[in-house]
Amino acid sequence: HVQLVESGGGLVQAGGSLRLSCAASGPTFSSYAMGWFRQAPGKEREFVAAITGRSGRTYVGDSVKGRFTISRDNAKNTVYLQMNSLKPEDKAVYYCAAARIIGVGEGEYDYWGQGNQVTVSS
What are the φ/ψ torsions at residue 45 (nearest 5 degrees)? Predict the structure, then answer.
């Protein structure tokens, strides 16, 4: 079983930066693909970014390309989401998730963090 604990969310001004972290407690972190999703009030959950387990290949959603970067440190069992040039529309609850097989659909992920609120003021 994998437990994911997210941190780093908060309030930031538009144009600012924020770094989310997701620490995994499971023993096989490096074998999991990791993803970030977000959900704004009244909207569907949206794929943000994902990274493969060992190769570190990354995938980023169209809405955040050029602004967000996903990375991981397998030695620390941690995945990161660096968010730059934040916009008000980035306001959402951000979820970290782990999957055996990387994908962009939330149904493909087996474990989820509790969610972390990111608020971007105009």
Answer: -65, 135
Residue 10 backbone zone (phi > 0: left; psi -120 to 50: alpha; other: beta): left
User: Do residues 85 and 67 make contact, with C-beta atoms less than 8 angstroms apart?
Assistant: yes
In one-letter notation, the amino acid at residue 13 is Q
Tokens 């440190």 map to which residue?
73
Q: How many CB atoms lie within 10 A of CB 117?
A: 12
Model pLDDT, residue 28: 82
What would the two tokens of residue 95 be?
């979820």
Residue 49 has pLDDT above 90, yes or no: yes
Tokens of 108: 């493909």
Angstrom distance (rounded) from CA 84 to CA 114: 23
pLDDT confidence of 102, banded at 50, 70, 90?
confident
- Side-chain half-sphere of 45: how many Cα atoms within 13 Å? 15
Buried b (16+ CB within 10 A) or exposed e, 60-94: bbeebeeebbbebeeeebbbbbebeebeeebbbbb
Encoded tokens for 2: 């994998």
